[in-house]
Each structure stands twice: as structure tokens, then as C-alpha cells.
Design a protein that fits this description.
The complex is a heterodimer of chains A (902) and B (65).
Chain A (H helix, E strand, L loop, with lengths): L18 H10 L4 E5 L6 H11 L8 E4 L6 H14 L19 H12 L5 E6 L7 H13 L4 E7 L7 H6 L3 E4 L1 H4 L3 H10 L6 H11 L3 H12 L4 H10 L4 H12 L2 H10 L4 E2 L1 H8 L4 H11 L3 E3 L6 E3 L1 H14 L3 H15 L3 H10 L3 H10 L12 H7 L10 H13 L3 H14 L6 H18 L2 H17 L2 H6 L1 H17 L3 H14 L27 H17 L3 H17 L10 H12 L3 H17 L5 H17 L3 H9 L11 H17 L3 H9 L6 H13 L3 H9 L9 H17 L3 H15 L6 H5 L2 H10 L4 H4 L17 H5 L15 H11 L4 H8 L3 H15 L4 H10 L4
Helix pairs in contact in A: 1-2, 4-5, 9-11, 10-11, 10-12, 13-14, 14-15, 14-17, 17-18, 18-19, 19-21, 21-22, 21-23, 22-23, 23-24, 23-26, 24-26, 26-27, 26-28, 27-28, 28-29, 28-30, 29-30, 30-31, 30-32, 31-32, 32-33, 32-34, 33-34, 34-35, 34-36, 35-36, 36-37, 36-38, 37-38, 38-39, 44-45, 44-46, 44-47, 45-46, ...
Chain B lengths: L1 E7 L4 H4 L6 E5 L2 E7 L3 H13 L4 E7 L2
Antiparallel strand pairs in B: 1-3, 1-4, 2-3
Classes of the chains: A mainly alpha (902), B alpha+beta (65).
């Protein structure tokens, strides 16, 4: 049935040629926008279809899309892409595909416009029935693409109401052609021509009366012709019609309907409950077997029922369907619901699940509608996929007291979608009353599936583990093809389980669940991108749409897991994949979490690239502000990273402020690790302020056996001048493979420092070299900076005696970054032997500032020289002092000269 | 908010049944539909429903409750 939306409706056989209007339409598409406005039945679609049929032989025929009022923005754009695809328009794969019903991103629209701008010949897109019921965001998106496609796109819109496009701007620019109601009205000549097509011979007076009474309304003239054909005296019919004051549509439809044999009337009244009708479906609705013949007959003679492009399906003219429904309600009260129920069963029997669910819901037959969804394992589609919004809307009227397990399960799912946890609890309790070990596997799976999602929302690891284990078990009981048809169930379960384990600080468990979740979605970057052969009744790629959100979610959680395990490269790779999937699938901002950016900020921080860390964290904050409810682990990670960045800037107060900021409301409780993680960050912030006692107190508030905690305590003790207890803390750390890399590096550095304090310089240097070796593969640099000035100083002294760092053999030839201890500044001087390189390279801008400082310029003079503000110069200077391990401008200049940097 | 919609022609029972929230007063060659309109969403919804049934709105105004 979908095919129908991508093809122009067949042109009726009894057609009035309107060359003037066709010419205006052809002229219109030379510009970007053509509007055809008029009320229902004024002939907009017929005119446009007629014009499109004539253009079929053009080198690039117009592309057709029938828009429906329920189309959510994401669905609309998915259909636009499909229409373009079917019309042979090549759209680069990089444009991506919308996967959420609510909308698409601006960047998707930018890519689409760019893609269209590249097409050699402009694409003409007809959007039939593009009415104002569409969300404003959709119209804005359309306006954007149209304006930015650089002439590569022309749009023809037909609608009953003026669209929300900024028409005044198009008018002012002369970029719009409008065919409005007045233009569409049938003239005397048009009416005469149409009557002629129907082989009716009416007097000139009769025609005048007809045009007057219908006010040139095309559908009215057409219906009148039909009614007259069956009337013994057409002239009398017109006179009577002109004298009657009833609303035209109802009068004429009544006439046409009454003129039909009773069986046909009955059939029309019954089939109007569905948008499109198949002869078998019509038989199911009437309980007879004459639909095929009757429908074909009606379509042959008329205006209000048409065959859907060479398929077995028919559709009623929307106006006619609406009036028929009104008649149905009046003539057979209560029948409408029954008919929806019958349609639902026929649709279910022919594997049209979604439509069956909608009809079942319209029938108020909740056990059936919900049962269909549950039995087909489609409960996940309430959470993810292009149909999610429509399905949730269909189930919105589901009463809480609906009997049975399936309605309760669907009700619970609907509550969970809107994060109404108490509502969910109520519904799920009702479901549990009906469920037992003897219940169907699909119902038990749906229950376990909801348990996982709810467990995640409430941050309950035990419940989530139980539900996930149950889900996995029941999946094994179900037929494999059914399970394979709904990969999103497994993906959502595993992604949820992984996120909960991550929240509880169980990193290895999180890693295995999340890796499995990513696998369940198919390989990132391959599976969602690959296009299966286009099936006639599906939109290519939509079957994969439900997998994007869980894939994006799992990749984000996986990236954070790896970051916490100190695997920076993996973390960054997953984070980038997460962002790429979000982008490719045009996830709207409210569906994105800031996880990917938080992880990239974390990686940049560990690698001591503070500007990058700051910008990623800003992006994360911006994304999270628009995004869904925050994940506790992500919120904690973001706070800790923010605090460490502030501490790195030497602003301990700001760091503490970041940590003291309350969580966004609605965050589920985080595990004990989170409390400790925050305490560790707070202790580091206190150390940055030079307050070792406060650092120790911060740690005392959250006693923990985590190695991170022990290391932080050892650091604080050392800062307090208590080397011996610090050494004891370090000695108590587990063996190396039980520690994350940053902790191992940090511990190594601290051991070096303790050794140095003991006067054991050789041991200190050995430890330091070990730290550098450890840090090298993942480019961990931050602990060296956090180790304090001592590390930098000693590293400079130690650097020569350690062959791995000083000799060229220690550096990968051609590698961008050698050891973390080397900077570009060091390499720039040619050979490291010329002098101990600083721990960190100066940026080009910092070098510029330093060069000016060497000329004895004041801060203001440097600012003027470099066209920046004095504050920026101060920031650069601060950074230079830190990198060079000095506190004064003159020292910095001397040191830089010593190093050959100037 | 109480509204009055002036519709062109006589609105028959069948169609009027679609608007149980509105009272119907036939006047010469026209029909007045009056009733309480909950909010703007309801108002625009009504206009769309009139349109989808082919009813032409000649005039609409808010009237004292």
C-alpha cells in the first residue's frame, strides 16, 4: 500500500482538459515553489496528477509523494528520501536516513540540500496534500532545503490551506507560482466539457444553474453529473438541486449514494472505515463476496473511488469518505467500531501488523490490538523506529482497566515511553496478575523487556539483571525467524543492561553486555548503512531504523566504559562511532545524549589536550541540555572531567563548584563508585588549591576500596608531607593488571616521587621512566601534569639518563606524538640532546606571545601586536608558565631561550 | 470561549451529528453552529473538520458566554 504514496494517482477517464492551468504549472516549476490551494474536491490532485502524467516522458519526471496528516517529521523525511530514490534521484549515502519519528537534525537537512544542489538537473518534487496539520518544524525544514538546494529542487505543493512556508518572502522574490481556489473553479465551459464526457446534454440555463449552485466546485460538478446520469430528467434534477439549500457535498453525495443499488450503498458505507480498501477486505467488511466487481464498477464510472496505481487496492476521495462515515454513524450507530474490528482482523491475517494494530485500536478492541503488538514481539516499536509516535498515539486512549496481559503490557510500555514510572508500576502490576509461567513466550518476553528498561530508568541493577536474564532465556524459546525480525528487542535489552552495569561501576560486565548490544545491531557503520534490495511495500532502510537509537546508546555507554577502564584509544573510537551513528541517522537533539562528547572530553583530558577537552565538554553540556534524562554514569563522568579541567587551569575553587553542582533532576541514583569518583575529584581539587588536609577529609567522606581512591589518598598524604603512609597506600594497591592505565601511571609517578623524597634518585628515575613507558601507547599525559612541578622537573633531569626517552630509537619514526614527555618544541630544535625538552609543547600562538614578551613588550602591547585581547595574552602566558615550569615572564623568556624555542 | 460559526447552506442531521458539542440553528440558506470551544486547538480542529466535510464557513465569532 505504501507504493501508492509514491505514485501520482491515475488520471480519471472523464477529465476536463485545462490547458491554461497546466501551462501555469509548467511555468511554475521553472521556479522553486508552486502552490496549488483549494478546498477538498476542488481538483488540486487531479490537475497535478494530469500534469505529472504529461511530464512522465521528460528527462527527469516529477517525483510524487502523497503526504498524510499523521506523518511525523522523521517519517516525512524518510518518505521524501524514498520518493527521490524511487524517482531515480541519486542522493549521496552520506546524507543519512531519519530513524526517529519526531524529527531530524538540522545537519541532515543541510546534507540533503547539498545533495540536491549537486544534481545535474533540478528535481521536481510534488508533495500532495501538504496541509497545515503538519508540524511547523517540518515546514521550516522544507523551506530550508528548498532555499539551500541552490536551484536543485523545485517543489509543487497541493493543500487545502496555505502552508506555513514564509510565502511573503517567496512572493517578494518572485519565486512562487500560485494556483488558488478561484483558478481551480470550473467555468461554464469546463462544466459543459465534463457533462459532455459523461454524455449528458444539458441546456445552457441548466449549466449556468449548476455552475452557480456549485460555485464551480469541481467535485460538486462531477457528483452532479453522476447523479444526473441516474436521473430520468437531468434538467429537473439541476433545478431541484439549485432550489435546495442543503450543503452541497452532503446533498450530492446523498443523491449519488441513494442512486446506487442497496448492496453497493452498504458496501460504500462499510469500506469507508479504512483509508484504502482491498476487495477481500471489503468482503470481510460486508460479509458478502461481490466487492471485486462492485469496486471495479464504481471506479470505472466515477470520481470518488479510484484504483491505486495498478494494484488491487482502491481509495475513496477523502471528502466522500468523510461524509460516508457521517452517514454510517447515523444509519448504523455502533457499527463503525465493529467494522474497525473486522478490518483489524483481516489486516492481521494478511500480515499487515501496524495497520491491524491501528484498526484494532480504532475499534477499541484493546486485547486484540495490544495482543497483536505483543505476539509479534513488536513491543519495542513503541520505543524505537519510525512508527513509534503513531503507535503511541494509537494506544493513547487505552483504558487502564482493559482486561488481559497484553493491554496491561502495552499500557506499561506507553507509560515507560513518557518516563511515568509510577504509572508504569501500576500497569505492570496488572500485567503480572495475568502472567505466569504458563503464559505465552511473547508476553513473558515483553514483560522481561519492560523490566530491563524500567530497571535502567530506576537505576536498579538487581532487577535489571534478573529481567535481562529472563529475556535472554525466553528469546531462546521463541521461533528464530520471529526473533530475527525484531533485533531491536535484544539490542535494547543488552544496551539497557550494559548501561545499568556501567552505572553500578561493573565495568567488565558492562563491556560484555554493550559489545553484545552493538553486535545485535549489526556492525556499526556497515549494517545500518547497507541497503537491502528495495521491497515494493517497504521503505528501504526503515526496517533498520529501530536499531539506530540502541546502537548509538550502546556505543556511547561502551565508550564511557572503555574510558573508565583507561583504554583511551578504544574509548575515543567508540565515542566517534556513537556520534557518527547519531549523525547518520539524523537523531533529533532531544534523542541524543552527550555521552560521545563526554568521552571525547575525557580522552582529551587524559592526553592533556585541555582546549579539546573543554570544547567537547561544552558540546556535551549543550547536547545533554536538549537531550533525554541523564544517565548517572555520564553525569558523574562529566562532573569529574569538568572539575579536572578547572583544576588543570589552576582554579581549585571552580573545580569544587563543578562537583558541588547538584545533578540534573531525574537522574537515577548512581552506584557507590560514583560517590567515590566525586570524592577523588574533590580531593584533587583541594590539592590544586594547596589544601592537603581538605583533600584527605574529602576522601574520608567516601571510604572505598577502589584503587583510584587509594591513589588519591596516597597523593594527598604525600602532599601533606607524609611519605610513609603514602607508600603504604601504594603498596596495598592490587597487582598491575587489576588497575586502569591512568591509575598505574599515577601510582608509578607517585612511587618515583616517594623514592626521590627518600633520596633514592636512581629508583625515582627508574619509576619515572616506567611511567613514561606505560603512558606511551595510550598517550596518557595528564597524570604527568597532575603529578606537580616535581614530575616535570625530574623528568627534565631524568630524561637524558633514560635511553628509551632520549635516544632516537625510543621514538617511533614519523609518529606524530612520541613519548608524552616530548613536545614538538623539543623536536623542533632538531635533536633532543640539545637540551631537556619541556614536558609539553608550546602552541604556535603561545610561541608568538613568548616572542613578543622577549622583546620586552607589555601585556597590552603584545595584545595590540597580535590583535587579541589582553586577557587572551594573559591566558597564553599562564599556559606558557605552566608548560615551562616557571612563574615569571623573564624566567619564561630565559627558559625558552635555553631550550632554543625562540 | 463560546463561538458561533455561520455555515453556508443547510447542514443536515447526518453531518451535524459529527459536532455534538455544537447547537444548530437553521437560518435562511445558512446554518448557525454555536457552542463552547475549549481552546485554540479545539477551534482549529473544528475548522479542519468543517472543511473535511465540505462545510463552508462564512463567518465565525466569539460570543459572550
Amino acid at each position: 500500500m505504501l507504493t501508492a504514496r509514491f505514485t501520482a494517482p491515475a488520471v480519471p477517464k472523464t477529465l476536463v482538459h485545462r490547458p491554461e492551468l497546466l501551462r501555469r504549472l509548467t511555468a511554475g516549476v521553472r521556479g522553486p515553489l508552486t502552490l496549488i490551494n483549494g478546498p477538498a474536491g476542488s481538483g488540486k490532485t487531479v490537475l497535478t496528477a494530469h500534469w505529472a502524467a504529461a511530464g512522465r516522458r521528460a528527462p527527469r519526471p516529477p517525483v510524487w509523494l502523497t503526504v498524510e496528516p499523521d506523518d511525523a517529521p522523521g517519517v516525512f523525511w524518510a518518505y521524501v528520501l524514498e520518493a527521490l530514490h524511487r524517482g531515480g534521484v541519486e542522493i549521496p549515502a552520506a546524507v543519512g536516513r531519519p530513524t526517529r519519528a519526531e524529527g531530524v537534525t538540522q545537519s541532515f537537512l543541510v546534507r540533503l540540500a547539498a545533495g540536491l544542489a549537486e544534481s545535474a538537473q533540478p528535481v521536481v518534487l510534488v508533495l500532495d496534500q501538504f496541509d497545515t496539520a503538519q508540524p511547523p518544524a517540518m515546514t521550516e525544514g522544507l523551506d530550508f532545503v528548498l532555499r539551500h538546494a541552490a536551484g536543485g529542487l523545485r517543489i509543487v505543493l497541493t493543500s487545502r490551506t496555505d502552508s506555513l512556508l514564509p510565502l511573503h518572502r517567496y512572493r517578494a522574490a518572485g519565486e512562487i507560482a500560485e494556483i488558488r481556489h478561484a483558478d481551480l473553479r470550473f467555468t461554464h465551459a469546463d462544466a459543459e466539457a465534463l457533462l459532455g464526457e459523461h454524455r449528458l446534454d444539458l441546456s445552457q440555463d441548466g449549466i449556468r444553474l449548476l455552475v452557480q449552485r456549485t460555485e464551480g466546485w469541481a467535485a460538486g460538478v462531477r457528483l452532479c453529473a453522476l447523479a444526473m446520469q441516474r436521473s430520468p430528467d437531468p434538467e429537473a434534477f439541476v433545478r431541484q438541486f439549485a432550489a435546495d439549500r442543503t450543503t452541497i457535498a452532503d446533498y450530492l453525495l446523498g443523491e449519488v449514494l441513494d442512486a446506487q443499488p442497496p448492496d453497493t450503498q452498504d458496501l460504500l458505507l462499510r469500506v469507508c472505515v479504512t483509508d484504502r480498501v482491498h476487495p477481500d477486505l471489503a468482503d470481510a467488511l460486508t460479509g458478502r463476496d461481490d466487492a471485486a466487481r462492485t469496486l471495479a464498477g464504481l471506479a470505472r464510472d466515477n470520481a470518488f473511488l479510484e484504483q491505486v496505481d495498478a494494484s488491487a487496492w482502491y481509495r475513496l476521495h477523502p471528502l466522500f469518505a468523510e461524509v460516508l462515515r457521517a452517514h454510517l454513524r447515523q444509519r448504523h450507530p455502533g457499527l463503525e467500531q465493529q467494522l474497525h474490528g473486522r478490518a483489524a482482523r483481516w489486516l492481521a491475517g494478511t500480515d499487515r501488523l501496524t495497520e491491524a494494530v491501528f484498526q484494532g485500536a480504532a475499534a477499541g478492541d484493546w486485547p486484540f490490538a495490544a495482543g497483536q503488538l505483543v505476539d509479534a514481539l513488536a513491543i519495542g516499536r513503541l520505543f524505537t523506529g519510525l512508527e513509534a509516535e503513531q503507535l503511541n498515539r494509537a494506544f493513547a486512549p487505552l483504558p487502564a482497566e482493559a482486561e488481559g496481559a497484553a493491554p496491561a503490557l502495552v499500557g506499561a510500555a506507553a507509560r515507560l515511553v513518557v518516563q511515568d514510572l509510577p504509572g508504569y508500576e501500576d500497569a505492570v502490576r496488572r500485567a503480572d496478575c495475568h502472567l505466569g509461567p504458563g503464559s505465552g513466550a511473547a508476553a513473558r518476553l515483553s514483560r522481561a523487556f519492560l523490566g530491563v528498561l524500567a530497571g535502567r530508568a530506576t537505576g536498579d541493577p538487581a532487577a535489571t539483571e534478573r529481567a535481562a536474564a529472563e529475556a535472554e532465556r525466553v528469546l531462546g524459546e521463541l521461533p528464530a525467524p520471529l526473533v530475527a525480525a525484531h533485533p531491536e528487542i535484544r539490542a535494547l535489552v543488552l544496551a539497557g543492561l550494559g548501561a545499568v552495569r556501567l552505572g553500578a561501576g561493573r565495568l567488565d560486565g558492562a563491556h560484555s553486555a554493550l559489545t553484545a548490544a552493538v553486535e545485535a545491531c549489526g556492525e556499526p557503520g556497515t549494517r545500518p548503512g547497507t541497503e537491502p534490495g528495495p521491497a515494493p511495500d517497504t521503505i528501504s532502510g526503515t526496517e533498520l531504523a529501530p536499531l539506530y537509537p540502541p546502537l548509538c546508546d550502546a556505543l556511547g555507554s561502551l565508550a564511557l566504559t572503555e574510558l573508565m577502564r583507561g583504554r583511551l584509544r578504544q574509548a575515543a573510537a567508540h565515542a566517534r562511532a556513537c556520534l557518527a551513528v547519531a549523525e547518520q541517522s539524523a537523531l533529533p537533539p532531544e534523542r541524543r545524549s552527550g555521552t560521545g562528547h563526554v568521552v571525547l572530553a575525557g580522552v582529551a583530558l587524559e592526553q592533556d589536550d585541555l582546549p579539546a577537552a573543554r570544547s567537547h565538554l561544552d558540546l556535551a553540556t549543550a547536547t545533554a541540555a536538549a537531550g533525554p534524562r541523564p544517565e548517572p554514569a555520564v553525569a558523574v563522568a562529566a562532573a569529574v572531567i569538568g572539575a579536572r579541567i578547572a583544576a588543570a587551569d589552576g582554579d581549585g575553587e571552580a573545580a569544587l563548584a563543578v562537583l558541588a553542582r547538584p545533578w540534573p533532576p531525574g537522574a537515577a541514583p548512581a552506584g557507590a563508585w560514583a560517590t567515590d569518583e566525586l570524592a577523588v575529584a574533590a580531593s584533587a581539587a583541594h590539592l590544586a588549591r594547596g589544601d592537603a588536609a581538605a583533600a584527605l577529609r574529602a576522601l574520608d567522606t567516601a571510604p572505598s576500596g577502589r584503587p583510584e581512591h587509594a591513589l588519591a589518598r596516597a597523593r594527598a598524604l604525600m602532599a601533606a608531607g607524609r611519605a610513609e603512609p603514602a607508600a603504604r597506600e601504594l603498596a596495598a594497591l592490587p597487582a598491575d593488571d587489576g588497575l586502569t592505565l591512568p591509575v598505574r601511571v599515577g601510582a608509578c609517578l607517585l612511587r618515583a616521587r616517594i623514592a626521590a623524597a627518600d633520596g633514592d634518585t636512581a629508583e625515582a628515575h627508574r619509576r619515572l621512566a616506567e611511567a613514561v613507558e606505560l603512558a606511551r601507547p595510550e598517550e596518557v599525559r595528564r597524570p604527568f601534569a597532575e603529578g606537580g612541578p616535581w614530575v616535570r622537573r625530574t623528568l627534565r633531569e631524568a630524561i637524558r639518563p633514560v635511553p628509551a626517552l632520549g635516544s632516537p630509537a625510543g621514538r617511533q619514526p614519523g609518529s606524530r606524538t612520541g613519548s608524552p614527555a616530548e613536545g614538538q618544541a623539543g623536536s623542533r630544535t632538531g635533536s633532543p640532546a640539545e637540551g631537556p625538552p619541556p614536558v609539553e609543547a608550546l602552541s604556535a600562538r603561545e610561541t608568538d606571545v613568548l616572542r613578543q614578551a622577549a622583546r620586552m613588550f607589555s601585556t597590552e602591547e603584545i595584545a595590540a601586536e597580535l590583535y587579541v585581547s589582553a586577557n587572551t595574552v594573559k591566558t597564553h602566558l599562564k599556559s606558557i608558565y605552566r608548560k615551562l615550569g616557571v612563574t615569571r615572564r623573564s624566567d619564561a623568556v630565559h627558559r625558552a631561550q635555553d631550550l632554543g624555542l625562540l | 470561549m463560546r463561538y458561533e460559526f455561520r455555515i453556508s447552506g443547510v447542514v443536515p442531521d447526518t453531518l451535524a451529528a459529527n459536532f455534538p458539542e455544537l447547537d444548530r440553528i437553521p437560518v435562511r440558506e445558512q446554518t448557525l453552529l454555536l457552542g463552547i470551544v475549549a481552546d485554540e486547538a479545539h477551534l482549529y480542529g473544528l475548522l479542519t473538520r468543517f472543511q473535511s466535510l465540505g462545510l463552508r464557513v462564512l463567518e465565525m465569532r466569539q460570543i459572550p458566554a
